[in-house]
Specification:
- With 246 residues, the chain is of the alpha/beta class.
- It folds into 2 domains: 121 residues, Spore Coat Polysaccharide Biosynthesis Protein SpsA, Chain A; 91 residues, Alpha-Beta Complex (Spore Coat Polysaccharide Biosynthesis Protein SpsA, Chain A).
- The protein has a 7-stranded mixed β-sheet, with helices on both faces. The protein has a two-stranded antiparallel ribbon with strand order 2-3. A two-stranded antiparallel sheet has the order 8-9.
- A hairpin with a 5-residue loop joins strand 8 and strand 9.
Length: 246
Amino acid sequence: MRILGVIPARYHSQRLPGKVLLPLKGKPIIQHVYERAHQFFGDELIVATDDMRVVQTVEGFGGKAVMTRTTHTSGTERVSEVAEKFLYDAYINVQADEPFLEVSHLEQVARGLEKHEIVTLASHIYTLEEVLSPSVVKVVTDINGRALYFSRSLVPHVRDMPMTNPEVVKRYPFYRHVGLYGYRRETLMRIVSLSPALIEEAEQLEQLRWLYHGYAIHVLEAPYPTFSIDTEDEYVQAQALAERLL
């Protein structure tokens, strides 16, 4: 199976504009992401952006980048535009704001695509703070690993134990979504033509549209979570993490 790695990199992020170009230990965030992803994809990797500043930065460090339309509402839509021009069996959507990306995560998604049409990852949650945070997207799966629902709210809700009790996260399975997606080409081109769903609008999670329309999303358990940079506070945290991890 031929797989192309695509890093959708929108410049005008709502909460932290231009974040993909912010410096982190002497390199822009997008370069850290690209270099980690390159360890797995090699030359089968491309950045898809809506801003020439990102193109120039990527090409400046020797990477490949293409301009895409400014009207896309999700990373998946941006990947689909790349898929119109570059024909592969499948595509892996790599988040542009995760400089501590694990190569093993990419390997897991690629293996999953051998069996499934849409693949993503989740990691176990061990703290109450993460379980209760709306910035941490939770996922619940069925017995076969197919996603039942993604939510910023607490799922599953524990009726008979107070959420201040640390035993909750020991007794019940809570998983945070790791924002990597793999899609086979035919499925990718179908899901971007689906009409929006109200649950997607409410949660602001694009994958809920696919579930709403009956598509199966297979969730594989990753041993490690990732760290995305969405806010100024998270950027400060990333600077501290970079001293140890980059």
